[in-house]
Structure formats: structure tokens, C-alpha cells
Design a protein that fits this description.
Low-confidence stretches: 4-24
Number of helices: 5
Strand content: 15-25%
Number of domains: 1
Order of helices and strands: HEHHEEEHH
CATH architecture: 3-Layer(aba) Sandwich
Number of strands: 4
Strand order of the largest sheet: 2-1-3-4
Length: 133
């Protein structure tokens, strides 16, 4: 009986750990470069509020310089060519991409469309009682 209980406890713990890690593995990479007017606009219009939104909770922002070497564990379909470029990453692997900053109004819709296709979006809304941005 003790073995069965211990096995169930291990399985439950592994499932909980995998669910927690799945949530933490989604991120939004922003590729930028010095002097980029659109990067500055994004930083002014979106940057301060992004971490406070559902989008920021589901896919925390990670910033990278366009011309710098990527850290190990980041796998993109192709190198970004424009700034800003926003790349949705799952476990460091590119899932989707938005090239350029289309302005505040369009940014939220386009990023939201990318995120709403991910299981973390529904899971986060369920946990937060259906609250969105």
C-alpha cells in the first residue's frame, strides 16, 4: 500500500512540475538595436505596461540585440532582419513571429492572436478567473 501511495505521489508531483514548467517555458523575445525609432516607440508605449498584462504574464519579455550572438538554447527559424522583431518562443524554439512594430493598437491584436493559440493562454485565464488584458 505504501508503494502505491508513493508511486501516486511521485506521478502527481511530476505532473505538477511539468505543468509549472510548461507555463514558464513560453516567452516573447524582442530583437532590437540602438537608434531604432520603432523600438523606442515600443519601449515608450508598451514596455511599461507589458509585464502587467495577461500577455506579459503568459509570455514574459526577453530582449536581445539584433546583431549579438544568441544565447545557447534559442532556436530561430531564421535570423531576425528588422527591428523590432518579436518572436514567440516555447522552450527557446520559435513558435511564431511579428516583424516590426505596427503601433500600440495593432500590436496588442497581433500579439494576442499569437498567444491565444497557445495552451498557456487558456490555462492562465482559467487560473485568473477569466480576466484578460
Amino acid at each position: 500500500m505504501k508503494r502505491v501511495f508513493a508511486a501516486l505521489l511521485c506521478v502527481g508531483g511530476a505532473l505538477a512540475a511539468s505543468a509549472d514548467s510548461a507555463r514558464a517555458d513560453l516567452s516573447l523575445a524582442m530583437f532590437e538595436q540602438s537608434g531604432c525609432a520603432y523600438c523606442i516607440m515600443w519601449d515608450n508605449q508598451i514596455g511599461p505596461i507589458y509585464p502587467k498584462t495577461t500577455e506579459g504574464a503568459v509570455a514574459p519579455l526577453r530582449k536581445f540585440q539584433l546583431r549579438e550572438t544568441l544565447p545557447a538554447g534559442i532556436d530561430l527559424k531564421s535570423p531576425p532582419q528588422f527591428t523590432p522583431t518579436f518572436v514567440l518562443l516555447r522552450d527557446g524554439v520559435e513558435v511564431d513571429r511579428l516583424e516590426g512594430y505596427p503601433g500600440e493598437d495593432f500590436f496588442w491584436g497581433l500579439i494576442g492572436k499569437m498567444l491565444k493559440q497557445q495552451p498557456e493562454w487558456a490555462r492562465y485565464l482559467d487560473q485568473e478567473g477569466g480576466l484578460g488584458k
